[in-house]
Amino acid sequence: MKGSIHRSLALTRKELFSTFNSPVAYGIIVFFLLFTSLWFFYVQRFFAMDTASLRSYFSVFPIVFTIIIPAITMKSWAEERKTGTAELLLTMPFSEWELVIGKFLSSYTVILIALILSLPIPISLLPLGHFDGGAIVGEYLGALLLAAVATSAGLLFSALSKNQVSAFLGSLIILLIITLINQITSTFDVPLSLAALINYVSLAFHFESFSKGVIDTRDLAYFILITALLLFINTRVILFRKWS
Amino acid sequence: MIEVHNLSKRYGTLEAVKNVSFSVGTGQVVGLLGPNGAGKTTIMKMLTCFHFPTQGTALVDGISVQDNPEEVKQRVGYLPESVPLYGDLTPDEYLRFVAQARLLDPKKQNERIHEVLSACGLQSVRSQRIETLSKGYKQRVGLAQAILHDPPILILDEPTTGLDPNQILEIRSLVRELGKSKTVILSTHILQEVEAVCTQVLIINEGRIAAQGTAEEIASTLKGGDTWELILKGVSSEQISPMVEQLGAQVSVNHVEKIGDEKISLRLFIPSNVESKTMNDGEGIFDWAVDHHIKILQMNRRRFSLEDIFVKLTTEGESK
What we know:
Distance between the termini of chain A: 29 Å
Order of helices and strands of chain A: HHHHHHHHHHHHHH
Mean pLDDT of chain B: 86
Helix content of chain A: over 70%
Structural class of chain B: alpha/beta
Number of strands of chain A: 0
CATH topology of the largest domain in chain B: Rossmann fold
CATH superfamily of the largest domain in chain B: P-loop containing nucleotide triphosphate hydrolases
Strand content of chain A: under 5%
Number of helices of chain B: 12
Helix content of chain B: 25-40%
Strand order of the largest sheet of chain B: 6-7-8-3-9-10
Radius of gyration of chain A: 19 Å
Structural class of chain A: mainly alpha
CATH class of the largest domain in chain B: Alpha Beta
Distance between the termini of chain B: 37 Å
Largest interface: A-B, 27 and 29 residues
Low-confidence stretches of chain B: none
Largest sheet of chain A: none
Oligomer: heterodimer
Mean pLDDT of chain A: 91
């Protein structure tokens, strides 16, 4: 177990080193911070609203994640396959899980850094009104869980794709669909059972309760289970390639 | 050390390796020879757990590649054919990653990396990004990665491809040195490399083993006799055939050519089943020439080279 963690972390370190060795990761983080801030202050007009709530700030996170996370994960597997370095990784004594966890942690760390760098916004606004601290914590927790699902989905698409572009587009489209699918229930008149099913699938729907400051165990379980399932499928894709 | 039984690999409808069986002991350097697409790389990929066999078993140090790939990978050092490397890392950083991934003792990592960098002649470029290195240095980085954990088994897919003659000699010498204590399987197109480095040869053709053993063993099985090249004086090309018949019914003339006044070039084939010992070591030919007042100006037994073996084994199917 200890060996597995060390191996995964060795891969994570190597991946992070490569990620921050190129300007792309910095660009993605800057894009995230700029987009969310502009959305909050200029589109949602936070100061004009005169409300002590950051819901509108966090409400854009699901959409931004559908763009930035595929951009982070797209190279994870697709680039390894393209350059042939997958052969090195797969012939080193990594198990499939160690590889997938190592890749997951490296991409997730980039999101984590982006989220940490977004903290000055709520921190600087807190003295301006009576904000609900619990709601902000819940919103960040929701963002972390949402990012975990999106990262594992991005990694899976990267593992399934031959190049970075198709990995990016594939995960972008799928994430957009499962994020925004709940809009159908509010736009169209759909039967209740179908609406429940659509909402259950939607990432934005499950994120919504966190943005209200409510930590519902069903939403928590949804994010954790979907992340685990996608990572598991990723390990099977790697294993399947050995047999095919 | 390595035991392979009825190993097959199918990619869709293509059967790349067909029922291959062989074994390699400790301290042997085995050369996998074969034309492009023969299945050499596929065999290597299965032994390194990059691909699993469709059928059959492969045991590395007694461990099955399918049942316990992680254990097998601990014991194997592998240099893939295309030498894939992380170009944005330096050799030092890259080897550190490999050392960490292979769980080498953190206290000994620096020392081991230093040793391997020196053994592969990489000290001068250890802090240079891999993508800026020449092909030769990249090859060495790949080899350094393969030997870093001091594995008992080394699998090297065309380790000298793209290197200059000096680098080739250095790598061959390194492989020979490693082969004293390790089991080494290397694939190559360079026949001289097999002759220079390998103790055993496996010739692969169309996914099957066409021959295995030492080059001499294979040659003696295949050649079925000796070819003698002679330059004779005092006989014409028309006279020679009836004279050769007196050497024995099984001795045949492969080639005869007039090359000057009363000089001919003659190529004789003497099958190994000719009972006369003197015939086989050339003495019989000499006596025969003396009896017929023929002067031998040049006499040479043509060795059956690895190149002859390779061509014979890998083109048999085509000629059929």
